[in-house]
Each structure stands twice: as C-alpha cells, then as structure tokens.
Amino acid sequence: MNRIEKNRVNLQNWLAAKAGADCVDITDAKPLTGGAIQENWRLECQVAGGVNAGLQRYVLRSDAQSVVASSLSRGQEFRVLKAVRRAGVTVPEPLWLCEDKDLIGSVFYIMAMVDGIGLGPKVVKDLTIGGDRQALGNTLGRELAKIHSIHPPQADIDFLPKPKLNPALESVAGLRKHLDDLHEFRPALEWGLRWAELNQPAEPEITMVHNDFRTGNFLLDAHGLTGILDWEFAAWGDPMTDLGWFCAKCWRFSRPDLEGGGITSREAFYEGYQAVSGRLIDAQAVNFWEVIAHIRWAVIALQQAHRHLSSTQRSLELALTGRLLPELEKEILSMTKIDAWKRP
Amino acid sequence: MMRDNPQGADLLKEARHVLSDIVMPQLSSETKYQLLMAVRAIKLAERQFLADTETEARLTALLAGYQETKAPETDPARALSSQIRNGNWDASPQVFDFLQEVAAFKLKETGS
User: Fold this and answer.
1) Contacts of A327 in chain B (CB under 8 A)
2) Is A286 or B61 the better-scoring residue by pLDDT?
3) Which is deepest, A44, A142, A209, A314, by most CB within 10 Å?
4) A114 membership: H or E segment, kind and range
5) Cβ contacts of residue A185 below 8 Å, gap of 6+?
6) Does residue A35 register a pLDDT over 90?
7) How far apart are the CA of A152 and the nearest CA of chain B, in angstroms?
C-alpha cells in the first residue's frame, strides 16, 4: 500500500480544512513520472461544499527516497513558487503547504494540476507539442526574464542561498568540492574547471535564478507553455547561468542544431528575454555558463552513479547516467580548446 | 588461459537480441522503457568486454606519461587532475591532445 492510500483519511480531512470544504474524497491517486528527487502524485478529488466544490485535480509534491544536497526543502520551494507566480511567471498555482511530517510521512504541498507534456526527448522530437517553436522560444525567453526581475532582498524567500564570491568562482569551487567529496579524479573536468577559473565573467547583477531552466522542466501543450516546473535549485545568482543551462548542448537532446534547448533558435529565445528584461545578453558570459553547465551535469551524473554504486538507491537508470561522462567530457574539451584560453 | 566459447561478448550480444527482438515487442510502453535501458546497458558491457584489454592498457600508458613530472602519486588520473587544478598545464596543447585522446577512447566504448 502506498503512503497516499495509507494516509488517505488524514489527507482528505486536511484537504477539506484547507479548501474550506465540508469534505473531500480522493477518488484517484497516481504517481507522476519524472521525480527522481521528489515524488509527485496526481490527485483527483471530489470536493463537497465551499468555493472549490466539484471535481478538482491537484498535484501533491513531497520528498522522495533521497534528497540531493543543496536543493530547497518542499516548504521553501512552495514559497518560491508563490513569489515567482506573483512576478507573473507561468507556474502551477501553489495552494497549500503541510509542514507536519506525520500526516503522510514527509512535508508536502498541493498545487493545481496543469496539463502538458514535459519529457525532454519527446518534446524535442514531436512537433505537435509546444505550438510554433519560434514563438515558444520567445515565450520561454520572456518567462526567464520575469524570473530574473526578482532581486534580493525579499523577506518571504530570504532563505535562498546568496553567493559569497563572484557566482562564477563560487560555482568552480563548489564543483571541485563535489568532485573531491566523491573521490573522483577526472582530468577533463579539471581542465574545464581550470579554464573557467581563468575565464570568469565580470561581477554580475544578482537576481533570482531557476538553476534548472531547461527542456524537460517545462510543461507544454499543443499551443505552447503551460507551466515551468522543478524549482528546487532556485537561488540568487548570475542571471546568465540560466541562459547557459538552457542553451547548453547537453540539454538539446536529439536536436543539437537547435541551440535554444533543442526546441527553438537561440535568437528567438534571446529576443524574448531581451524584450522583457531590457538586459543586454553577454555572449561570453553565456558561453562561460554553458561550459559550467556541462561540468555540472557531469558532476550530477557522477553523483547519480554513486547513489547506485553505494546501494543508496540501486537503479539501472542511475547507473547508466554515470556512463554519460565521455560525451560531456568531449563537449567540455571542444568548448575549451587552446585558443579559448586567456594567455597568462 | 583459453576460455570456452561462446565468450562473454557473444553471450551478451545474444541476450540483447532476445530482449530487443522477442521480448520488447510484447511489452507496454512503460515497461518497454525499462527494457530499453537494460538493452543499452548490455550493449555498453558488450563493447567494454571487447575493448577492455586494449583500452585499459592504452589509458594506463597515456596517464603514466604524466606521472613522471610529479611526486609519488599512485593514481595517474589523480596526479594529472591535481596538476591541472594547480595550473601546471594551463592551455597546454600536450595535455589537451591527451585529454581528447582519452575522451575518444571512452566514447568508442560507449558507442556515442
């Protein structure tokens, strides 16, 4: 019996109290795919009484088996969702947070269900998803600019990590520490990190950054964007980080020729971004963050392989992720050829 | 030592064909995804099996070349990593070519 079934009555009573209803009946509960770090459940509820009366579809989001270091708690993520929604970003409406771990076994929150397809490889291949792809690129640029319109300090999200150094240098130091913690000795990754250390962009303006803004983390229907997901890595940082992550080749799946996340042109994405942010895009800074994106993904792949190897979470998917390293290393090297180094 | 035939790589190849050609068409799309991963894992192991001796020897030889310049570090990859981090090989064409060669070896094995 899963934990939703096990705690069904408690959950129904809690939902009824939060929704201002006489009672709530969970008529269907299904796990949603794509939650390696978090667990997402689709709930269909019959709500009796109150303003939400009728059939409602919600998503319950809680921690899964293992939590990746440096990700936000579900309570923090709920507050970030509220803040970005206030800024006009297209996200599922965050409804209610439950910080009582006893109710279903961990902290969770409820958000409105949003329809759409997220799976990166499918979205890239299937042109019936997402509507006109240039328009989609423009929309994604505009959405990202709205996220970057949020500046510190913000009382309700003051828990977001702030860079102590230049975010670029902090990123290099953080990635080296992860490699050391894993006892991984990867000359190609060290090569990329050393290049990054010597080629850091100038001190940036600090804004909110999503930190995982990429194809696969957006929900799309036949007409376009329906929601931006996965806010667990949000932080204060260099806005160019998100542009680099979105455009990085490793997130273009089967369409490496489409530099805007495998789904659009880089130009369409940039145009939308600049139109809303009024910020000029520093191409060199984006290139820097694209190199870092590949190193970061390589480090995450190593961490995932270690989760499998250490038996923390045995999984073929995690094991195979560890074998993505050669491709990522090749890309890092191709972006940091000798002529890309600043001569000392 | 002479091994009995069929050898490891042949057995993996046959097992992969059974899974992808006979079992897979009968599965639902959700289970198919799991099997596709298993087939990919077998394919990787198959290539590694074939390339193991050659690759291992070549990588060790390549890495060993970088050991002589530094103190008694037992693991050549560790020695080179630390030298790169310390700035001993900034923009070095020699190290860059070596890293590319290693990456090409590993890519051959993963079939990318």
Assistant:
1) 107, 110, 112
2) A286
3) A209
4) none
5) A179, B75, B77, B78, B80, B81, B82
6) no
7) 33
Binned at pLDDT 50, 70 and 90, residue B72 comes out as: low
Give the architecture-level CATH label for domain A120-340. Alpha-Beta Complex (3.90)
pTM value is 0.90
Instruction: Please report, for chain A, the start and end positions of each structural domain, with discontinuous segments joined by +.
Output: 3-112, 120-340
Q: Which of B82, B100, B112 sits opposite A333 (nearest CB)?
A: B100
Q: What are the chain B neighbours of A323 within 8 Å (beta carbons)?
A: 44, 110
Nearest residue of B to residue A194, measured between CA atoms: B85
**β A54-63/A38-48 pair status:** antiparallel
Strands (E) located in chain A: 23-31, 38-48, 54-63, 94-98, 108-112, 207-209, 218-220, 225-228, 235-237
pLDDT band at A45 (very low <50, low <70, confident <90, very high): very high
> Which pLDDT belongs to residue B54?
66
Q: Report the candidate in A238, A242, A206, A231 with the shortest Cα–Cα distance to residue A80.
A: A231
Give the DSSP H or E segment for A67: none
Least confident of A198-202, A339-343, B4-8, B30-34: B4-8
> Which pLDDT does position A188 carry in this prediction?
97
- Sequence-distant (6+) residues with CB within 8 A of A67 are A37
Kindly identify which residue of chain B lies nearest to residue A191, measuring between CA atoms.
B84
| CATH code reported for the domain at A3-112 | 3.30.200.20
Q: Which of A193, A323, A338 sits opposite B91 (nearest CB)?
A: A338
Name the residue facing A341 among B38, B90, B106 (closest C-beta). Answer: B90
Question: Do B85 and A330 make contact, defined as CB atoms within 8 angstroms?
Answer: no
Chain A residue closest to B77 (CA)?
A: A185
Out of B78, B87, B96, name the one closest to residue A185 (CB). B78
Q: CA geometry: angle at A123 spanning A117 and A129, to 5°? A: 70
